[in-house]
Amino acid sequence: MLQVQEIQCQYQSDIVVDKVSFHVNDGDICSLLGPSGCGKTTILRAIAGFQPLTHGKVILRDHCLSQPGKLVGPEQRNIGMVFQDYALFPHLSVKDNIRFGLRKQNEREQNSAVKRLLELVRLEGIAHRYPHELSGGQQQRVALARALAPSPDLLLLDEPFSNLDTELRKRLSLEVRDILKELRISAILVTHDQQEAFAFSDQIGLLHGGKLQQWDIPFNLYHEPSNRTVADFIGEGCFLPGVIGSEANTVTTEFGTLMGNRAYHWPPGTPVEILLRPDDIVLSDFGGITATVVEKVFSGSATLYTLSLPTGSRVEALLPSHRNYAINETVQINTEADHLIAFSREELLQGSA
């Protein structure tokens, strides 16, 4: 449905988006995820028609919307957009804000559409209120209804939940996802919050330094990071040194020889680092190795422990909070890593150079 083909955007001589490619299928809900300044909002603006390209193409339903020297106007793209600050017209009522994109329809059709959209976003009964009379969550719903009113092919959301408190943000993002799935409207969300991206998206693109590092389903981004940048950004975890074992799917570490779920392409004896997530580390009543608690972060149902191993290496473990260990206390641990991701140390050194 949407094809983004090797797009490049720059401000003056600075390249801020560098040869980024991905596609969005009908009904897919996707996210562009990454730290501030990585280029995700620029990509959204390029898709919307507010940012010209210096290379590549944006194609929607087989129609080229953008390429160097060509820029179809935002109003001609049939793409809806919800901004971070909602951008509601303060002098217009809720009803008139939603009707703004329906000016080509007659009054009866407009009223019918507004009624249907207010029901969809659960705001029946406030059609005559003004934006300043609404809560942040209500304003966000009105902005969504206004963007959905013209039945866009694609909806773009630029950090629309960032001004809301944590609980409302979680609830509203799931409600918006349900609405989009019900209407089968494709969407792209820009966010720096990976938990929000995981809960909201079918596909996620992780950006760093203007480059797309990986475009994948949330499960693969967490368990199958394509490079060290993705592994560092997504979730918690630590890297533990090891060497490739005599079998192609084994890595020898201070936990012993660990068996991966893949054959590694390096020869035996190659120095590597393996990614261990907090849920890969488990308590061991028998055997295992002794680790010392050096940090702990309580989060209610679980506690995230940072543990020092005998060699000085560190790992993280997410344990039920009723197992309360003190700083400097020792525990016996082992690994249960179903997805054993390894990076060669030579590649890591080249990546950091």
Automatic annotation (TrEMBL):
The keyword Membrane applies. Residues 2-234 form the ABC transporter domain. It comes from the Bacteria. It holds the Pfam family TOBE_2. One of its GO terms (molecular function) is ATP binding. Signal peptide: none annotated. CDD domains: ABC_Carb_Solutes_like. Keywords: ATP-binding, Cell membrane, Ion transport, Iron, Iron transport, Membrane, Nucleotide-binding, Transport. This is ABC transporter ATP-binding protein.
